[in-house]
Amino acid sequence: MSDLQSPASTGTAGKASSDAPVKATAGGDAPSAQAKSGRSFLPRSTLLRHLLVLAACAVLAVVVLEITSPFQNSQLATLTYYAIAAGGLTVLTGMNGQISLGHGALMAAGAYTTALFLDAEEPLPLPVILLAAIVVATAIGALVGVAAARLHGPYLAGATLALAVGLPGLAIYFHDTFGGEQGMRVRAPQAPEWFGSFIDAVSGNSASSTKWLAYVGAICLLITYFFLANLVRSRIGRTWRAVRDQEVAAELAGINLGAWRVLAFVVSAAAAGLAGGVLAIVVRLAAPSGFTIVLSLSLLTAIVIGGLGSLLGALLGSALLVFLPPFVTNLGGDFGLSQTEAAQLAPFVYGVVLIVVMIFVPAGFVGTIRLRWMTRKAKRAMAQAGADGASSRG
Amino acid sequence: MDYFVNVTLTGLTQGMIYSAFALALVLIWRSTRIVNFAQGSMAAATTFIALALIQAGQSYWVALVVALASGFILGAIVERVIIRPVEGGPELNAVIVTLGLFVAIQASIAIIFGSSFQSFPTPFGVRGLEVGDTTIPLTPTSLYIIGSVLLVMGLLVALFRFTRVGLAMRASAFSQEVARLLGVKVGGMLTLGWGLAAVVGSLSGLLIAGGSFVWPAYMDALIVFGFVAAIIGGLDSPVGAIVGGLILGLALSYVSGYAPRGSALVNISALVILIVVLLVRPGGLFSSATARRA
């Protein structure tokens, strides 16, 4: 079947890059954009570089949240929890090669934890509650991860699929604690006073509760991505990729495959737990209907379209999840579909996009661009080497 | 005692449907090494075709035949057009393509047939048979379900054992290169395999719909249970799929019949059963000892 794969390849710059575009995980494998460039103004230390990017993104986030309308603020808040969960999933699937169809269930764990803690008479401070959400999701993730580490491919997909369907069922069984089918209403935390004066100083807008939640989401998103980006560029990230690409070679190099797989699952579950916590306070509801299999599949869609293994890709894919459905639904309405029919257009488009992306550009958006860029650089280097060789002979 | 027999028979009937669905997954896995997550929504699509025919005044049996035939065509088209480009590629790509197909087909059912609940007829009654004075908890519908699944399985065994086409299909599943060298048209066999699997999947969809309600996502539970059954049996073994389906059907029936408020526990117990089986045997119950994966 390999003859059918070759049209997808674009590179001529050596064996390694000519078969790379077929792999879905190509997006995460390129070094971070500045790492190899000689005349970069950015510092050489990865941590410092990422801190600079973090600061720039924080400023950008404030600007975006201040120039957009309250409705767009709430859309952006939705974007943040999708992006946090997708970031964790892209590390698991793209970096470590484990597929998970159960991240919706881990988000549910985070969301219910947050809802329970906020339900108390005197709720703890929000960061503590979100931390608790992370801890609970991490614990569940560790349990599942231990089982998952022994499985691969379809077996893993099946086990996590059963998790996605099974775990929200517990909320129905213990309906006295978790509110059954109706779920739990979440009391949205109040914005602290300094937030109002901060917004007033920055833009003079009114500091609504929607805006506060969007800021909470953005802060969580930035912190998560900062951690994940550092992790991916560290020894841990390299080990994950080794485990993904060459099990035997990694094992010979002294890597304990199982332990590293569990670690990847745990990290990714932690992100999903935080995402669930943010979801709970943004949506103000934690109910089983919010954590269907469709949620887990949407996350997978986001990371595949963006480019597996790339955090930027996960962010872009999540943006697509948030902004595509209203757009497509409107389009359907314009073509004379009824309300309910138009609402189904969005999943239809998701599905078709997933198939088309996987068949024609399996490296996803970010992965494809990175590969193009690297291929061009390699070509230029080869041309340079050829010219040097010719001049030295002449 | 009556209650126990009743619960057991319900479990067996459900288990037969899970077995059929698991068998469809195993057929595809054996030939193309792909798990078809779209199996459920493909079956749902053919069930809705059958429902449309029945609502237009056709008999159940005409609708059944048309639905199975359209299942075959749908399966063959899906393999040729969508699956072929990712066959033999990285595992992850194929999984994602079938997931995309799952979402897309389910959404198009909702667009074409609407997303409301509709009742689906059954050709036989759902009241227990009466033998003398006692009513035994065995309904004609469950007999019909068990009988038709057994019939289809028998036909499949006959096809694979006793016909040239079956031999060619087994050869191309065993080793594509060798089969191709010996003159087997492997591509055609794969398409045929997907078509047959879609027929079996459609049958399980029609059976579980009988006497109950259908909506575009009604197969979601069956996808999960059929998949769990196939994995319990060890994806490679048709016998394993059948045994796995029966085990799962019985176990879930006992959980929902005996545990307090057990129906809410059905999904999570499927997960527990799966995890326990996989922790003991990571390749499923009927997996043969394989060579080391590189």
Task: Look at the helices and sheets of chain A and give the structural class.
Answer: mainly alpha
Count of discrete structural domains of chain B: 1
Succession of helices and strands of chain A: HHHHHHHHEHHHHHEHHHH
The CATH topology of chain A corresponds to ABC transporter involved in vitamin B12 uptake, BtuC
Q: How is this fold's topology laid out?
A:
The complex is a heterodimer of chains A (394) and B (294).
Chain A: H1 2-5, H2 15-18, H3 46-67, H4 70-96, H5 103-118, H6 126-148, H7 153-173, H8 175-178, E1 184-185, H9 193-202, H10 209-232, H11 235-245, H12 247-252, H13 257-283, E2 285-286, H14 293-306, H15 311-334, H16 339-360, H17 364-393
Antiparallel strand pairs in A: 1-2
Helix pairs in contact in A: 3-10, 4-10, 4-13, 4-14, 4-15, 5-6, 5-7, 5-13, 6-13, 10-13, 11-13, 14-15, 14-16, 14-17, 15-16
Chain B: H1 2-32, H2 39-55, H3 60-83, H4 91-113, E1 118-119, E2 129-131, E3 134-136, H5 140-162, H6 164-174, H7 176-181, H8 186-209, E4 213-214, H9 220-233, H10 238-258, H11 266-280
Antiparallel strand pairs in B: 1-4, 2-3
Helix pairs in contact in B: 1-5, 1-8, 1-9, 1-10, 2-3, 2-4, 2-8, 3-8, 5-6, 6-8, 9-10, 9-11, 10-11
